[in-house]
Amino acid sequence: MFSSFDFDVIRRSLPYLFYEGMTFTLTLTALSAFGGLVFGTLIALMRLSGYRLLGRVAGLYVDFMRSLPLVLVIFWFYFLVPYIGQWLTGASRPIKVGAFSSSLITFIMFEAAYFSEIMRAGIQSISRGQPAAASALGMTYSQTMRYVVLPQAFRNMLPVLLTQTIVLFQDTSLVYVLSITDFLGAASKVAQRDGRLVEMYLFAAVVYFTISCIASWSVRRLQARISIVR
Amino acid sequence: MIELRHVDKWYGPNFQVLKDCTTRVAKGEVVVVCGPSGSGKSTLIKCVNALEPIQGGEIILDGIKVNDPATDLPKLRSRVGMVFQHFELFPHLRIQENLCLAQEKVLGRSHDEAQAKGMKLLDRVGLKEHAGKYPAELSGGQQQRVAIARALAMDPIAMLFDEPTSALDPEMISEVLDVMVDLAGEGMTMMVVTHEMGFASKVAHRVIFMDQGEIVEDALKDDFFGKPRSDRAQKFLSKILQH
Amino acid sequence: MNYNWNWGIFFQPNPMGTGTYLDMLLSGLWLTIKTALLAWIIALICGSIVGVLRTLPSKTAEWIGFLYVEFFRNMPLLVQLFLWFFVLPELLPRAIGLWLKQLPNAPFWTAAIGVGLFMSARVAVQLAAGISSLPRGQKQAATALGLTTVQTYRYVLLPMAFRIILPPLTSEFLNTVKNTAVAITIGLIELTGQARSMQEFSFQVFEAFTAATLMYLLLNLVVVTAMRFLERRVAIPGYIAGK
């Protein structure tokens, strides 16, 4: 069945696929996860702050982002970011933003909505006695959050956050719609150039599958370890 | 009617829950099974209708071997009623639907026939006016009476009770026990796991005392309450009758 | 911001000759709805089967369920769509492959099936969790009444499990709607795709995307409202989830 296929094309393109493609994918995943977590935590704190307006704004942002397809959000930011850049810098024309920065901003803003829901659940899962005890020790709100609440919320939610990061890793493949050379983009470019769609897409599928499987297996192990410690 | 011969059961390779249990329940007999928690009494009763598989020995129900792959288990189970500690009415079905479901799906009775039978039994446990309600709208004691009616609707040849009153608030226990006493008075074959020693002394013919997976004592009621032979049963009785 | 806003663009004719730009977007919205509905039906059917498999007391069934879920969960949806669209026809016998490639609505069918299977893994996980969250006694009670395994699932476990997982199923349905946009990569001109082509023809990027965004928000609202209504319709009197 595979006699007419040329799997050597994979070997020939390996350096391109991994040095260019996978590096882009992994860097984008890592930085978006970090940025998404930071922004997400801020949004979660806004929602739980007790200030009506602040909470409403944060809630609207989360609901809004979660209602839209990622592909549409990618397009939005791709066209919008140059104008925002112009507005921020006061330049006379929309500024040029590289493919990487554009997708990084997109994913940070998009994932922040999802990470914020996880962090919100994490913060709410901590017993009310904890912040009370911290206040009783004389800590301010920000000290309480920074030293007492957030570290616990983060640790409790670590498996969920990591699972969301695996989803994010898979979702970064959608930058394909901007013709960016992430891992899938690289595979696709080779596929088109050499007319080897079957080989390249199968290979891409195997690589994504392997990485995600190993990652989710590690998360499960971590989860088991955490639940034993408790 | 119910016969257990050298029944062994393991959970995993190292933990034996039932050790060489042998006993029998004759037609029309009421047998109470008691013992400390974790003694295997609930497991024992669940083996009778093969809700729990056994690894050794055999169980014979009305002449049919339960632990035989050739046995039509659903058919056999439909002939033995079972009442659970937590009632286990089906929460999404109205009371009358709870009573009809198995009659129609297992016994193949027509809807009208099942309905009539269900209402008759509901009337008997004094809950006719609740037929259209959902289980969660009834009290625990009422739910357990419905559960008994549900089991009786199948025209069982014997009834198994697995701690029928231990999940109930004290004031509801007697309404359930009353139904069970009536049932015993009619000559129903019953195997009852319970801590209610009052019930046992009133209607039981025999009492089985279990501890750590073994049947320690299997005696006529008066012998058991009058003078239990084993230390373990004596200790158990003195603890439970203290209050 | 030196961008020329032109909200009147929606009422100007589109270059395809299919009416106005607004008509273009609306036809995209309609395709999104059609694709999402078909995908959701596939997801529900396959997801229910696999979800049940994962809860059966058979190691084989459990393994099949596990492998199915892992297969669909560990690959990006985009890659899965490429596999179905570009790779599958080449791996099949020539005649079938050719037939597949020449199907008139190939992107639509591929998108519906691809997104459907992708979502089915998530439905399966939710359903399996819902079934396992039911008290163990429910299954035992049904079994004790003589119901077969199929009947137990059909009449007792599934009606409750689906009620319990209705809220998470709502968000999975919303995800299905959103995920149809990924099919833009295999040439399905659904709502996002139409917004993109409107942008390419008219250069009015932000009007096109704003309109598409509003339509997605509206679609979300409709789905959420409909599901709330359904939740109320099937709610059981007196029953509080998680009790």
Describe the fold and architecture:
- The complex is a heterotrimer of chains A (230), B (243) and C (243).
- Chain A is an all-alpha fold and 230 residues long.
- Chain A has one domain (13-229): MetI-like fold (Orthogonal Bundle).
- In chain A, 81% of the residues lie in helices and 0% in strands.
- Chain A has eight helices and no strands.
- Chain A has helices at residues 8-47, 52-67, 70-89, 99-124, 129-136, 141-171, 183-194, 197-229.
- The longest helix of chain A has 40 residues, at 8-47.
- Chain A is flat, with a radius of gyration of 21 Å.
- Chain A starts with 7 loop residues before the first helix and ends with a helix.
- In chain A, 37% of the residues are buried.
- The mean pLDDT of chain A is 91.
- By secondary structure, chain B is of the alpha/beta class.
- Chain B has nine helices and ten strands.
- Chain B has helices at residues 41-48, 73-78, 95-105, 111-124, 140-152, 170-185, 197-203, 221-226, 231-241; strands at 2-11, 15-25, 30-34, 56-61, 64-65, 80-83, 158-162, 190-193, 206-211, 214-220.
- A six-stranded mixed sheet of chain B has the order 6-7-8-3-9-10, with helices on both faces. In chain B, strands 2-1-4-5 form a four-stranded antiparallel sheet, covered by helices on one side.
- The mean pLDDT of chain B is 93.
- Chain C is mainly α.
- Chain C has a single domain (26-234), classed as MetI-like fold (Orthogonal Bundle), CATH 1.10.3720.10.
- Chain C is 74% helix and 0% strand.
- Chain C has helices at 21-53, 59-73, 77-91, 94-102, 106-133, 136-144, 149-164, 166-179, 191-202, 205-234.
- In chain C, helix 1 (21-53) packs across helix 8 (166-179), helix 5 crosses helix 7 (149-164) and helix 8 (166-179) packs antiparallel against helix 10 (205-234).
- Chain C is flat and about 70 Å long.
- The chains are: A mainly alpha (230), B alpha/beta (243), C mainly alpha (243).
- At the A-C interface, helix 3 and helix 8 of A face helix 2, helix 3, helix 8, helix 9 and helix 10 of C.
